[in-house]
Amino acid sequence: MDIFKWLFLVILVIAVLHFIHSVQTYTLERKICVDIPMKFAGRKLACEFTLMQAEQFLQGGNCSYQSDVSISNLRSDSWPHKLSELILKYGHQERRISLKEFCPSDHFNFSRSNVLYTFRVVTLFVDCSHGNFDCTSALCNNNTDCGNNAECSLILSGGIGVCFCKSEHIRINGRCYNANVPTGGTCVSNIQCRDRTYSGVCLESICTCGEGNHEIENGCFAGK
């Protein structure tokens, strides 16, 4: 009799641990290029994905500035999830984009072992504040919406795209400027003046040598 009691307790403990694991949720956090979560939201994968698939897609990228990306309330097992909203944040600004029309309206339930389950509906959050990229006002339909030195990448549903600065350019105050201005070149910010060693100061709209350095043939060198 005691053996059966212990066996029952062991089975009960295993069942409780399995239940806790099955209902436990996770938050996926990444620091990646902003175009990666945008592309994730614009693919059919956004209508049905697992935690592992999100982890594999939301990584890497080649860019100068990265954004903070997160998805909360994810299940750790093979339970499917569905994106319902994309939230873009830049400073105190916030832009919400509904993705409900992107997936079929009835794409909320699935069947497993003849049992009907409901998709976990989650939100993709992208904070561009640290990347010097105003993703809240950079939505576009074509290149003319993006201004000079920028291109519209149509990566969301319904023909919605995001403006990205062209190669060798950087976004400053909502506009794209040359990212590698040599000493003596025009500038609007210190971060542009990084083409020469010991450079890095935008003084009166001109890239100049940093304090304690001197200029020789459009280059900056240590010492006075």
Strand order of the largest sheet: 1-2-7-3-4
Mean pLDDT, to the nearest integer, reads: 77
Largest sheet: 5 strands, mixed
The best one-word shape is: elongated
Class from helix and strand fractions:
alpha+beta
Overall description:
The protein is an alpha+beta fold and about 220 residues long. Among the domains are: about 25-135, no CATH class; about 180-220, no CATH class. It is about 15% helix and about 40% strand. It has helices at about 1-25, 35-40, 50-55, and strands at about 25-30, 65-75, 80-90, 95-100, 110, 115-120, 120-125, 140, 150-155, 160-165, 170, 175-180, 200-205, 205-210, 215, 220. The strands form six sheets. It has a five-stranded mixed β-sheet, with helices on one face. The chain has a three-stranded antiparallel β-sheet with strand order 8-10-9, with no helix packed on it. Strands 5-6 form a two-stranded antiparallel sheet. β15 and β16 form a beta hairpin. It is elongated, with a radius of gyration of 25 Å. The protein starts with a helix and ends with a strand.
Secondary-structure map:
Elements: H1 2-23, E1 25-32, H2 35-41, H3 51-57, E2 67-75, E3 81-90, E4 93-98, E5 109-112, E6 115-118, E7 120-127, E8 139-140, E9 150-153, E10 161-165, E11 169-172, E12 175-178, E13 199-203, E14 206-209, E15 213-216, E16 219-222
Parallel strand pairs: 3-7
Antiparallel strand pairs: 1-2, 2-7, 3-4, 5-6, 8-10, 9-10, 11-12, 13-14, 15-16
